[in-house]
């Protein structure tokens, strides 16, 4: 196989990321020449490649890669690479046209901007202070930009500096902008940005604060997507003909409804203006006024407060059982979707519920699912007296249905909030059957000893697990760490444990874990430890193994204090309770 012609290898690798190629060449040194092949390294993608923690990134590019061929470079999340090294690399890539550098040390400082002269596409993080540069540099070195993605990390400074930069980006066609500031002194005036960009075709706004009504119909842009998930809001505008521009809330399909999906779509629309599907499907539905031909890649039903309403749950089932969901990749649901099918009458006594789990049909229909989030549902959250007669017993009948998750063999990411009455034995089967599982996040309210025990037993089979997070009232850390230590592979990258009570000694197991897994990047323990000497000992162990700039090893005495930890944004997905489905992640900007 190694002796295949270079033409065959080129076809195999030209569509893969550079990370995959590097790993392959590491295993087969005789194929390192592939890193000089123009068709392969033209798009060089090493996003989040932790290999470069131990290997000098710039030196590797200079010595191993034919860098003259690189036209597109993705270094997102290489937050530990020194700024001078990144600048040195960019100075070599004189023909670079696309740079994706989110969560790196690059920004919009003057020395950085001088390296962007040939770029058509740029993704970067910057504070408002970084934008305080000579505007002539923007005119000379950024005037070719057609697509721009900007994360505003800090508002300290004069925000007018930001507007000055956009004023000079005459060629810009697409803008993604995320405001990470939670308590700004003043809002970003998006109108001032949009009306300076005469040729803008697409605008993506993501913000942690409420955004006032924005109407861009005068410049021919329609709002085709709006999402409010947990702590962020996303709004997307696209250029389209005037006859297509209508208010997003007024989008409807025409009667009579022909399919179950159309009926379900209308039911959800009546409950809430925000719909569950992804951006691609939202744009198609907006433009065609037709839901029948939409193909869903992501569906998120956790934004609506009418979770336990029978009509809402039935509509959710219809969405997920439709042919339009056969290529679904990401799904976020409430646990009430796991319940047995209610009877046609309103007599919702448990004994009267049909012995049918619609979730079984969903699992079979959505067999390509790669990411699943299941949030626990409490019918007590529904305060509407008019809906109480419609409430089902999702907190009773869902227990057996968790076991069906293990049939989703293509799962790579699983976030599951486990009710107190579910013992967690389903996790053993999930880890055994879902061989591709890389990300596991378990959330539990109250004390659930059986869940902790079964999770510890399950971990030994998690050979491909890279990210692991658990939040619970009480955790036996000694048993949990023993389970992690039984994993034979060395693929673990991030571990987060959050609990209010733990009564065991776990120093030995923690030290064993850190010795066995030198590749660990994040170890964050938000636990309650009463003894001062024990706290000092744990911190000493963590400090001893935190031996490079990429690693973050933390111990915090309470789970509440962890929310104030100032970590690189790249790790906040595992520390914070949020959703990754039917939202816009700026890392998807390509």
UniProtKB/TrEMBL annotation:
Entry-linked SUPFAM superfamilies: F-box domain, RNI-like
Domain F-box: 1-44
Top-rank taxon: Eukaryota
InterPro entries in the cross-refs: F-box-like_dom_sf, F-box_dom, LRR_dom_sf
Protein name: Uncharacterized protein LOC115877506 isoform X1
Species in which this protein is naturally found: Sitophilus oryzae (Rice weevil)
Lineage: Eukaryota, Metazoa, Ecdysozoa, Arthropoda, Hexapoda
């Amino acid at each position: 196989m190694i002796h295949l012609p270079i033409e065959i290898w080129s076809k195999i690798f030209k569509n893969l990321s550079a990370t995959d190629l590097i790993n392959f060449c590491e295993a087969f040194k005789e194929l390192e020449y592939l890193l000089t092949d123009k068709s392969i390294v033209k798009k060089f993608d090493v996003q989040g490649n932790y290999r470069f923690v131990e290997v000098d990134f710039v030196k590797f590019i200079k010595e191993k890669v034919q860098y003259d061929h690189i036209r597109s470079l993705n270094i997102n999340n290489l937050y530990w690479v020194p700024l001078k090294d990144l600048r040195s690399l960019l100075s070599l890539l004189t023909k670079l046209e696309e740079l994706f550098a989110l969560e790196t040390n690059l920004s919009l400082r003057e020395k950085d901007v001088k390296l962007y002269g040939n770029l058509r596409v740029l993704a970067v993080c910057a504070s408002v202070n970084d934008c305080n540069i000579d505007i002539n540099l923007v005119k000379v070195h950024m005037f070719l930009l057609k697509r721009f993605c900007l994360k505003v990390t800090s508002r300290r400074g004069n925000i007018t500096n930001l507007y000055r930069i956009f004023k000079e980006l005459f060629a810009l066609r697409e803008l993604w902008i995320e405001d990470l500031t939670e308590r700004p002194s003043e809002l970003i005036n998006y109108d001032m940005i949009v009306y300076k960009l005469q040729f803008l075709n697409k605008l993506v706004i993501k913000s942690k604060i409420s955004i006032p009504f924005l109407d861009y119909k005068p410049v021919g842009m329609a709002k085709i997507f709006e999402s409010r998930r947990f702590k962020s809001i996303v709004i997307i505008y696209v250029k389209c003909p005037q006859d297509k521009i209508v208010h997003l809330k007024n989008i409807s399909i025409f009667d009579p409804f022909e399919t179950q999906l159309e009926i379900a779509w209308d039911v959800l629309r009546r409950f809430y203006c925000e719909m569950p599907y992804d951006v691609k499907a939202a744009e198609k539905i907006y433009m065609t006024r037709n839901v029948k031909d939409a193909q869903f890649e992501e569906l998120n039903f956790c934004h609506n407060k009418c979770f336990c309403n029978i009509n809402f749950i039935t509509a959710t089932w219809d969405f997920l059982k439709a042919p339009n969901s056969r290529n679904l990749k990401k799904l976020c649901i409430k646990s009430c979707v796991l319940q047995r099918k209610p009877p046609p009458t309103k007599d919702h006594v448990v004994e009267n519920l049909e012995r049918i789990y619609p979730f079984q049909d969903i699992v079979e229909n959505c067999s390509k699912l790669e990411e699943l989030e299941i949030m626990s549902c409490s019918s007590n959250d529904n305060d509407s007296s008019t809906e109480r007669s419609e409430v089902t017993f999702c907190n009773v009948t869902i227990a057996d249905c968790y076991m069906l998750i293990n049939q989703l063999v293509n799962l790579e990411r699983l976030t599951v909030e486990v009710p107190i009455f579910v013992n967690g034995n389903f996790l053993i089967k999930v880890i055994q059957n879902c061989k591709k599982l890389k990300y596991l996040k378990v959330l539990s309210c109250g004390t659930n000893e059986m869940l902790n025990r079964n999770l510890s037993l399950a971990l030994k089979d998690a050979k491909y697990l890279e990210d692991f997070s658990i939040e619970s009232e009480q955790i036996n850390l000694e048993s949990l760490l023993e389970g992690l230590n039984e994993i034979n592979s060395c693929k673990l990258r991030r571990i987060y444990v959050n609990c209010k009570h733990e009564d065991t000694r776990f120093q030995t197991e923690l030290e064993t874990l850190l010795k066995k897994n030198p590749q660990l990047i994040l170890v964050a323990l938000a636990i309650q430890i009463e003894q001062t000497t024990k706290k000092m000992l744990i911190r000493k162990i963590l400090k001893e193994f935190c031996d490079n700039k990429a690693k973050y090893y933390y111990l915090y005495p309470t789970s509440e204090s962890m929310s104030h930890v100032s970590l690189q944004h790249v790790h906040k997905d595992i520390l914070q309770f949020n959703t990754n489905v039917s939202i816009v992640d700026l890392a998807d900007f390509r």
